[in-house]
């Protein structure tokens, strides 16, 4: 059996010998090379989502330790989008958190994204493994999504009001977000999506 590398070399040589590119299709070859594959988009997206989640998670934990849940709401209110924006600048990709039941209306998922969340939720509830998605965009590049799963810590602010979310916390949330939809969650549910645009 051929070693995979040998096979690639042979393929390369065959292509190279048979179609010596003229300057015109050299451009085409170059263009094709720059287009990233779905696998690459998934790998890039995952790296960014994991890093962003870590930054946000670390800051949230610190805020709760320092100021308690009530004080940490202000942190989420003022710092969450700022932090994802700064990650976006660092990675040169657009990074957002979206939800079908958003707290901040700026994080509202589209109809198609709501369907994706519903599909992820169904799989998670049925105990199936869930993995990120990357969809080709019409004008090139990919839109990457990674599900955001709730844990116990999240329930302080996203759990059931009167149970994990106490009245004081809820009052503060309502004061900042009169249209809040992001309570009533249990642990291990889909709270939303990381949405990352990956350009070619
Ligand atoms: C201290 C309270 C608090 C805790 C704890 C908390 N959140 Fe939030 N969460 C908020 C606030 C406030 C917002 C709105 C942020 C904004 O205005 O951008 C928010 C927004 C979000 C959003 C963006 C979508 C939306 O609803 O606007 C996601 C996703 C999210 N939280 C997931 C989580 C997850 C997952 C955890 C647990 C790891 C968690 N949150 C823990 C307060 C909290």
TrEMBL record:
One Pfam family matching this protein: Tll0287-like
Q: Where in this chain does the record put each Tll0287-like domain? A: 41-198
Which InterPro entries has this protein been placed in? Tll0287-like_dom (IPR021796)
Annotated protein name in UniProt:
DUF3365 domain-containing protein
Species, as recorded: Mesonia sediminis
């Amino acid at each position: 059996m051929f070693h995979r590398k040998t096979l690639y070399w042979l393929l390369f040589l065959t292509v190279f010998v048979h179609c010596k590119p003229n300057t015109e299709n050299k451009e085409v070859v170059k263009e094709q090379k720059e287009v990233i594959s779905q696998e690459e988009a998934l790998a890039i997206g995952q790296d960014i989502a994991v890093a962003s989640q870590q930054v946000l998670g670390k800051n949230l934990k610190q805020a709760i330790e320092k100021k308690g849940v009530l004080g940490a709401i202000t942190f989420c209110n003022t710092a969450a989008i700022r932090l994802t924006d700064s990650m976006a600048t660092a990675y040169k990709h657009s990074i957002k958190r979206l939800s079908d039941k958003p707290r901040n209306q700026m994080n509202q998922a589209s109809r198609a994204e709501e369907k994706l969340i519903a599909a992820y939720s169904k799989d998670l509830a049925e105990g199936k493994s869930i993995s990120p998605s990357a969809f080709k965009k019409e004008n090139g590049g990919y839109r990457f999504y990674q599900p955001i799963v709730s844990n116990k810590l999240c329930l302080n602010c996203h759990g059931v009001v009167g149970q994990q979310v106490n009245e004081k916390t809820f009052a503060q949330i309502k004061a900042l977000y009169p249209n809040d939809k992001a309570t009533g969650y249990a642990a291990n549910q889909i709270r939303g999506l990381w949405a990352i645009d990956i350009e070619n």
